[in-house]
Amino acid sequence: MDAANGPERQETVAQLLVDAAVWAPSPHNTQPWWFEPHGETVTLHSDTERRLSVADPSGREMLISCGAALFTLRLAVRRLGRLPEVRMASDPDRPGLIADVILGEPQSATDEERRMYDQIRRRRTHRGGFRAGALPVGLLQSLRAHACAEHASLRIVADPRVRIALAALSEVAEQVQCLDPAYVEEVARWAPAPCGEPLDGVPETAYPRDTDRTDPHFAGRDFARGQGWGLVGGEPGEATGVVAVLATTGDGRDDWLRAGQALQRVLLRATKDDVSAAFHTQALEVPELREFIRARFCDGTYPQMMVRFGVADDEFDSVRRPAADVTVGEL
Ligand SMILES: Cc1cc2nc3c(=O)[nH]c(=O)nc-3n(C[C@H](O)[C@H](O)[C@H](O)COP(=O)(O)O)c2cc1C
């Protein structure tokens, strides 16, 4: 897929990069980003209008999502046989500006980079239990190394008591959040009644109608809100899977962007081995619970994501806005 020369190539390259980046994960599929291609550079911006103002007032999850989009841009540049040059932006007058990603020197992509690139559109958030059984040998070690390469740590939760505690904290958070009408309204905004062909949010084909309880059980988001929506069919998995916490040593804007890059890198590496991830971030959205998890279970590092990994039997759907809708300037 080495690029040809000329202005036509630049348009094609921008399209390819943005087409890939939009498949990054984001809370409630808010897709809080936009892109500005110019020449051999794509500038990534956050879209603060799409931040979850109730669940994510600080914009932490919004920036984790932008970090995931940034990693995807970098990987797409590698797939083109170029080295990505990333210039992180920090302009108080333009707080939405995240980074310039520039097509740098030529260098062929490695086999692993090519295979990870192939997972960008294949990857899906899983919701529910997993198939019983172990993960591929060596995968967890590899995931930890990938997180580390992005200056984050992936803490695998092996102690059964800690798994039980984290599951219980997810349940507490889910119940506490649902007591807040503004939170429920926000979920309803992003997971509306099924209709038409949405381009964002969580469609009813993205979560199961029925899930078996796993042991321990990690609460899912209540996207169906008692309406009976959700995908029918498939064998619900019964295993919790491997529980992990993605953490960073600091807790500022740059750390959140690092966490997002690490997240997407880990997710794509897992997908390469047909391993899916389920996210449970409710407890990290309740400040007291996040602080508890940080102090008790993360050795003082800052928990950014709570994830379960496993092999899923169900196939869920997801949607995205097309590249043209999230691009300012020529594609
Ligand atoms: C910061 C962040 C937090 C998330 N939290 C949850 C969560 O608590 N529950 C959940 O089911 N999905 C969660 N997700 C996954 C998103 O809902 C998912 O990425 C989005 O709906 C798009 O679907 P896809 O990942 O299958 O493409 C989270 C994603 C991110 C980036």
Textual characterization of the structure:
With 331 residues, this protein is α+β, with helices and mostly antiparallel strands. It has two domains: 7-123, NADH Oxidase (3-Layer(aba) Sandwich), CATH 3.40.109; 139-310, NADH Oxidase. Helix content is 34%, strand content 16%. It has eight helices and eight strands. It has helices at 7-21, 60-79, 111-117, 139-149, 160-178, 181-190, 253-272, 287-297, and strands at residues 33-38, 41-46, 82-88, 97-106, 153-156, 242-248, 276-279, 302-310. A four-stranded antiparallel beta sheet has the order 1-2-4-3, with helices on one face. Strands 5-6-8-7 form a four-stranded antiparallel beta sheet, sandwiched between helices. Helix 1 crosses helix 2 and helix 2 (60-79) packs across helix 3 (111-117). It is globular. Residues 1-10 have low confidence and may be disordered.
Rg calc:
19 Å
CATH architecture of the largest domain: 3-Layer(aba) Sandwich
Main-sheet strand order equals 1-2-4-3
CATH superfamily of the largest domain: NADH Oxidase
Strand content: 15-25%
Number of structural units classed as domains: 2
Task: Name the overall outline.
Answer: globular
- The separation of the N and C termini measures 18 Å
Number of strands: 8
Q: What are the segments in which pLDDT stays under 50 over at least 5 consecutive residues?
A: 1-10
Helical fraction equals 25-40%
CATH topology of the largest domain: NADH Oxidase
Supply the helix-strand structural class: alpha+beta
For the largest beta-sheet, the strand count, sense and barrel status come to: 4 strands, antiparallel
Bound molecules: flavin mononucleotide
- The number of helical segments is 8
The helix/strand series, from N terminus to C terminus, equals HEEHEEHHEHHEHEHE
Protein name: Nitroreductase family protein
InterPro entries: Nitroreductase-like (IPR000415), Nitroreductase/BluB (IPR050627)
